[in-house]
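Support request from a user on the community tier.

User writes: "When I paste my structure tokens into the form, the page sometimes reloads and wipes my input. The last time it worked, I copied everything first. Here is what I submitted, just in case something in the input itself triggers the reload:"
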């Protein structure tokens, strides 16, 4: 490169606002602005107070609902916005990038997809418009159990058909937001495992009205965890669920659940990236201002390099998330891409969280800086909604063609 060219490049670099690469509006700029306006009304003290008492952000969720964001993926014919998955992912990203918390509301976006893609015409007409209007909340997804963990095919919650209803008995764990949801999508076994030719057979999905079920076969208990995730344990005893609440065909529930998991992974990956960007922005700003030994700590490569690497890895993770969303919206196979997006985003965001905490030093542990709160939030992505090890196993078997590891 000629010397003159090098001087021009440096001149251009001098005109760049530091940190602009982390802030510029990517796709859906108007949508991003709208989300930011809502988030500006829910500042750090609001989230600290909720975190302190493990509260649910009812006012925030209501604001998102009123703005139509939680109905983003519901088709217009049912009162929603009919936006593509990428747009929904942008909504979640901006919520977290603005310092708010998307997880109390994100489930409705992907759970309703099971009703939309596999529900009957009557079910869609009954539930989707009410969800879009905010009259019903579908925020609970009852899948995981204490004994089965990630081995979904071995769940023990049993539903037996008796006339015009199912009788359900079992237990669910890590069912977030069940105490703040009107409806719950429940995965049950309708045919005993030993009677199935394949272990993925015999599973079904039921839509449970929690307003009617509470105290009539369902007990929900909060589970205290590392972060404020409104997590619960659900005990089900002789719960009667109308047979008309069966989603799709009996015995095909595992396929329906998998169908929704790709959307879930893509949405959570972008949500995760939003957290990473918030953490990185905070760390960069602090590193510029904080002086130790007579110089900004951001001048030290020990601070610069982890932040620069976190930025690069967040950008790379978003590219994979974009690819996965594009494939999903084009109705193309996207299992590998959705899983890789979730894997890369969770690891990049965790590195950003670690770098932000280390950059802030002792102040990173002070609640008033919000770093420790977001640090705790960032850690869950490597475990839920699917662990990094299970993703690696999936890639090893289904992408690389290696022998099944479990």
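"...and here is what came back when it finally went through:"
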């Amino acid at each position: 490169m000629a010397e003159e060219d090098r001087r021009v490049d440096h001149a251009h670099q001098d005109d760049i606002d530091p940190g602009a690469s982390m802030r510029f509006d990517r796709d859906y700029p108007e949508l991003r602005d709208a989300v930011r306006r809502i988030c500006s009304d829910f500042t750090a003290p609001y989230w600290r107070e909720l975190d302190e008492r493990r509260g649910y952000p009812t006012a925030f969720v209501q604001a998102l609902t009123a703005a139509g964001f939680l109905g983003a993926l519901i088709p217009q014919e049912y009162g929603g916005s009919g936006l593509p998955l990428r747009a929904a992912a942008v909504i979640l990203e901006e919520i977290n990038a603005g310092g708010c918390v998307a997880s109390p509301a994100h489930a409705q976006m992907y759970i309703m997809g099971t009703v939309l893609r596999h529900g009957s015409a009557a079910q869609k007409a009954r539930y989707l418009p009410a969800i879009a209007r905010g009259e019903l909340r579908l925020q609970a997804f009852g899948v995981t159990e204490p004994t089965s963990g990630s081995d979904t095919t071995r769940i023990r919650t049993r539903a037996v058909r008796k006339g015009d209803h199912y009788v359900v008995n079992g237990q669910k764990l890590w069912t977030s937001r069940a105490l703040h949801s009107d409806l719950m999508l429940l995965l049950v076994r309708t045919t005993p495992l030993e009677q199935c030719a394949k272990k993925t057979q015999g599973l079904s999905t039921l839509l449970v009205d929690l307003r009617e079920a509470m105290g009539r076969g369902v007990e929900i208990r909060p589970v205290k965890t590392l972060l404020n995730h409104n997590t619960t344990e659900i005990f089900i005893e002789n719960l009667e669920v109308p047979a008309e609440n069966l989603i799709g065909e009996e015995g095909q529930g595992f396929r329906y659940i998998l169908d929704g998991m790709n959307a879930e992974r893509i949405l959570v990956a972008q949500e995760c990236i939003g957290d990473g960007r918030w953490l990185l922005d905070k760390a960069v700003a602090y590193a510029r201002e904080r002086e130790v030994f007579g110089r900004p700590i951001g001048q030290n490569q020990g601070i610069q390099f982890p932040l620069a690497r976190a930025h690069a890895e967040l950008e790379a993770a978003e590219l994979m998330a974009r690819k996965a969303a594009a494939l999903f919206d084009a109705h193309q196979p996207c299992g590998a891409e959705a899983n890789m997006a979730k894997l890369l985003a969770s690891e990049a965001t965790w590195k950003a969280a670690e770098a932000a905490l280390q950059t802030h030093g002792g102040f990173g542990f002070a609640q008033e800086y919000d770093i420790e709160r977001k640090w705790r939030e960032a850690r869950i992505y490597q475990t839920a909604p699917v662990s990094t090890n299970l993703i690696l196993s999936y890639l090893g078997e289904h992408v690389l063609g290696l022998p099944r590891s479990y």
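Agent notes: The reload is a front-end session timeout and is unrelated to the input. The domain at 139-253 is CATH 2.40.110.10 (Butyryl-CoA Dehydrogenase, subunit A; domain 2). Residues 1-25 have pLDDT under 50 and may be disordered. Escalated to web team.
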